[in-house]
Design a protein that fits this description.
With about 260 residues, the chain is an alpha/beta fold. The protein has one domain: Alpha-Beta Complex (Spore Coat Polysaccharide Biosynthesis Protein SpsA, Chain A), CATH 3.90.550. It is about 40% helix and about 15% strand. The protein is built from 10 helices and 11 strands. A 5-stranded mixed beta sheet has the order 3-2-1-4-9. Strands 5-11 form a two-stranded antiparallel ribbon. A two-stranded parallel sheet has the order 6-10. Helix 6 crosses helix 8, helix 7 packs across helix 9 and helix 8 packs across helix 9.
Length: about 260
């Protein structure tokens, strides 16, 4: 029987799916009271880096400590979902289940959320307009030093107008291990070079944001087969505020100061 574990990164108690394939992970748990979920400060871990690496501290914990056939990563407010469900569906009726996943999973295929398209922006220009573009410059320099064979894919991805975002995926554990072995040395070096002095708590989360783009670089460089599956954001999104903030960033140089 195929063993699947989908990590749900969370820092608070929340309504969670009941199916056993889902594993809520309390991120940034070091020094915190236990919420009753798996903690990310057990075994080999980087729990203390959660204010900067966000949900990636759960991924690192699973990379180093969790034995499973397939590994997934989602967020307590953002899940992969079934193709169809009613508006009144419970969380268990909405989220992807093992029965469906068994028909989708393959060792060399990555399940990812539907592509997010920016249309009037490239991934690079969107990051530069909304955040601090030097993060990408430093990341490119590090990739050139550590894994120069990825440089062409990095440049290609930066000029694309869409990508697989949110640090969400489901793939075989060997494939996710390969991704982690490439990703984390780059992020650690990025964090070492840029630091976090004089940044707000929002700005300090840049390693997690850069990793969303690097996931696409890894997919492209390794010619990973991709299958898009639907996802759902549990909270209501203020599309007017989100859209107006995007336009202010692009045309008036007003950087993002919080998540939307």
């Amino acid at each position: 029987m195929t063993d699947i574990k989908i990590l749900i990164a969370t820092h608070k108690t929340w309504e969670m799916p009941s199916e056993s394939i889902y594993l809520p992970v309390q991120v940034g748990s070091k020094g915190k009271d236990c919420l009753g979920y798996q903690r990310d400060d057990e075994g080999e871990n980087i729990s203390e880096l959660n204010p900067y690496f966000s949900e990636l501290t759960a991924l690192y914990w699973a990379w180093k400590n969790l034995d499973t056939d397939y590994l997934g990563l989602v967020h307590y407010r953002r899940y992969f979902t079934k193709p169809h469900y009613s508006k009144k569906a419970t969380i268990d009726e909405r989220v992807m289940d093992k029965h469906i996943l068994d028909s989708l999973l393959q060792e060399d295929v990555a399940l990812v959320p539907k592509k997010r398209n920016y249309y009037i922006e490239t991934l690079k220009s969107h990051y530069e307009h909304t955040l601090d573009g030097t993060h990408l410059e430093v990341a490119r320099s590090i990739i050139n030093e550590l894994t120069p064979e990825y440089l062409s894919a990095f440049d290609s991805v930066m000029h694309q107008r869409g990508g697989y975002m949110y640090n969400m995926f489901i793939m075989s554990k060997p494939l996710s291990n390969q991704y982690c072995q490439w990703l984390f040395p780059i992020l650690f070096e990025l964090f070492e070079r840029i630091g976090f002095d004089e940044m707000t708590a929002f700005e300090q989360r840049y390693p997690g944001r850069v990793s969303e783009l690097l996931f696409n670089v890894w997919l492209e460089n390794n010619n990973i087969q991709i299958r898009e599956i639907p996802y759902h954001y549990e909270d209501k999104i203020n599309w007017f505020k989100k859209g107006s903030s995007f336009l202010k960033a692009k045309f008036f140089g007003k950087k993002y100061t919080k998540s939307f």
